[in-house]
Amino acid sequence: MQPSGQSRSSFNWLSPVFGVIAIAIGIGGAILATRIHDAGLYVLMLIGIVVLVAAVWKINWGLFTLVAMTYARISDVAVHYYGAPSIAQPFIAFLTVLIFLRWVLNGERPQNWLPGLATIAAYGLVIFLSLFYAGDPTRAQEGLTTFLKDAIIAVILLLLIQSRESYRTAAWGFLFSGILLGTIGVIQYLTSSFNNDYWGLAESQLMNIVSGTEGYRIMGTFGDPNFFAQVMVVIVPIALNRVLYEKKPALKLLAGWALAASFLTVVFTFSRGGFLALCGVLALIVIVRKPPLVAVLCGLLILLMLVPFLPATYFERIQTILEYLPFSGADVRGEVSLRGRMSEYAVGIQMFLDKPILGIGYENYAANYLKYSMRLGLDPRRTERSAHSLYIEVLAEQGIMGLLMFAFVLYSTFRSLINGKKIFRKISQDEYADLALAFQIGFMGYLAAALFIHGAYPRNLWLLIGIGLATQQAARNEEILFTRQLLQQRLKISRRASMESKGKNI
Known about the structure:
By secondary structure, this protein is mainly alpha-helical. It has helices spanning 4-33, 39-57, 59-72, 74-82, 88-106, 114-129, 137-160, 164-190, 225-245, 249-268, 272-289, 293-306, 312-319, 336-354, 365-376, 390-426, 430-449, 458-505, and strands at residues 203-210, 213-220. It has 18 helices and 2 strands.
């Protein structure tokens, strides 16, 4: 980190460069505007130009956009619904160039990001090895390509999140996703406007709720209600942190909006795994944060007030969780989704037992499912299925080696979050220590939900991992700055005392 005076001096050289970039963006946007006839694409293009210019002006806007766009899958919506080219790839390239220019011209060199890169690369090596033994190497190669894209985003986050302010900016990227997707999803459910996909931001589908009963379940931009619930659970503790610590009333209001929208979204997905993850997150908030009894009672009162407004089928579906418990006496053949889940879990375990060291190959579970399920005889469906558990999926496809490396990535992430929290607390920055705790609880909620769903959208996972791995360094940079300022204050006091002493002697 450079002294503030040096940074301001260097920035004078950087301003013309950024100005040229901004002008080029404007000219390019104007040219494209004359060739665009779709109103949606035109709006997206204008927003993109504003975002790029804002990122040039202040790179934290680029960080905010990267987090929000990735977590809400905005780029995928633009591709699938508007036929636009990927906006994520050029934006990431733009941020990379911007980081490099700030490093070279302004001396703002990212600190200590190589350990995080090494952690991510170690897991990537395991995925790469499966190219040599996977039964379907094409799927393994496609999976590796997807992983590399996700890993690049995680590394970009390591480079960008270097201070408490950038850490807070990343948190608001999650809250924006919660407000955008959560609000639209809740409106869609409450108004029963399931035929309206709201510009591709609110998918929904008529699905089985309990045996003999069907109903609509909201899916956001994820094509599956369970994945939608999983990513929205993460936002709940982060939004609560911002409600407590934001200074401006408007920001507190927005954080409360994100909290309410995310909470209700989890409910309206009818996801049992999401419900359990949400309960776990709320329990952790109470146990770890130890809020006043009055706050806990108010929270319970609010939940009780919501109960009459929830559909009766929601409680019927939640009650089916008991059928998963051992010795419940439930016949798995009598409930469609339960029967399928049991088959998918059993097949995953059998794949692991057949190839316990390296697994059957990355992204090869679905390709081998039918071969195993037909022998098991529990699932009558004759279509490819997924593992429906991230951990069983890793175990089946990558064996013990992959599971150990995945566990190492998670361990490194939580270690960074915990150490970052301690450092923030040490320098009396309780707001950011609590934010690190909020990310930790949210990530635990995500991993809890992953017990019941596979890794179909790994980019959200690697986004969380990237932010988690960046936490400790952001806290360390703040500690260095705090120590430097403390020494400067002591030096000033010492000089003042020395001058006063000399004055008295005269």
